[in-house]
Predict the structure.
Amino acid sequence: MTTTALVTPGVYINEVNAFPNSVVQVATAIPAFIGYTPQAAYEGKSYVMKPTRITSMKDFNAFFSYPDAQAKQYSPSYYLTKQKKAPAAGKSYSFNGDIYTIEPDPGTIYYLYNSVQMFFENGGSVAYVVSLGPYGSATNSAINPGDEITNMNVKLADFQSALLALKKFEDVTMYVAPESTLLSDGEYSTLLEEMLLQANNMQTFMSIMDVKGGREPDPQLWLDDITNFRNATGNNYLKYGAAYYPYLKTTVMSIDDVDYTNINGGDVSTLMDLLNPAANPNPVAAKIINSIKAGNTLSVSQNNQALLMASKTYAHLLAIVLEQINTLPPSGIVAGIISQVDGDKGVWNAPANVSPVGVTDLTIQLDEDDQGGLNVDAVSGKSINAFRFFNGQGVLLWGARTLDGNSQDWRYINVRRTVTMIEQSAKLALRNYVFAPNVSITWSTVKSMLTNFLTNVWKEGALQGSSPTDAFQVQIGLGVTMDPQDILDGYMRATILIAVTHPAEFIVLSVEQQLAKS
């Protein structure tokens, strides 16, 4: 109320704010999952390339799953092939004295659906999904044993369009794209570099990355996958990325989710020699197969249960296929772990030394020496976080470094994400003072607001120091952060100095003997 507005005699009340505006801490654990979905429509409206906020798998299913509840939302195809001898690379299996390989049809392999499930299972609460469109066509053939999976339906241009769409969503704090590992090596490298570039430009998120080659690592040559990944990420903006290795064996799908339609393109006749071999006939299994071929009136589930009861070999085959389907890139699980740690302990705590839910094993067992070369690399400086197996504890996430592993400032994920949280929280609060008078009263108000916020952050344990003055400083004012020309140009500059807590990554315990004193 201004005095110039008073024209009628009387008593007027003018309320004056006693306290400055407060800074509200922004959310820190909101990933954006980028990938292909069963479908992308809701109430007749397409949701392809439209970042959509979800809080559960129920939400995901409403927008991105087939409307038929009985339909398989993800049903990859694997080919069973008899070999004359065990292949030089990849896995092989013995059935009835013969050697077989079981490899996927690359056109049917996708990771997003199961990764989102594992995100929620591991503590995730809120996410965005950017659907790149529905699944593509099968190739009707398998990859060669030991080869990486390259799905020709997975397009770099689709991911680039998704990155463009996400520029409008500043509340997203992580980009997760497990299906990017299905790109060719060159396209994968391009996408990783573009994600890091966008992270640097927006300064709101980190990219959670998977290392290609982690699905079936060669026990002798697995370090080549690490080298290839480090070469693929370039040298720019590494503080905005974090990489994880190897792939994880999960329980996200059960044996009830797999049947003969997942084998050899659904041609059940190809199973006859395997389930009813001449050397050891199984007439019951043969009868069931012939009945399925003839088009009996039973459902796929009923026929599948009959085969499981008739043949242990068939049950073994499905178990192998299920294990391959359940082997996932770790990024979706990592996003869930980060969300859980943020919610339970705060963003300033390292998302590590955590046992992932629904993970039973790793595709390769790494020891301390193996991880040493991943965690600290003198040549590239690019750290890669490992999942490790420990006796009595199971699988643990055993690393908390960004790709900028040699940086004293941005080595740790929790440091990078804590600073991002403070930056974005302060940025949103300071919008209230855009166009405010650039004078000492405004500067004092801003300083008080930021000081109150950082004091609370310090009390919660995010900043080091025995007192607030040891933990942070807020500077603003003429002759401090601004000169007269800044004010004439319309600049109000504030400087925040913070001492962020660092994890105790290397704990050294010294033990020394001494002589008895009595």
Remarks:
- The first strand starts at residue 31 and ends at 35.
- Residues 473 and 497 are 5 Å apart (CA to CA).
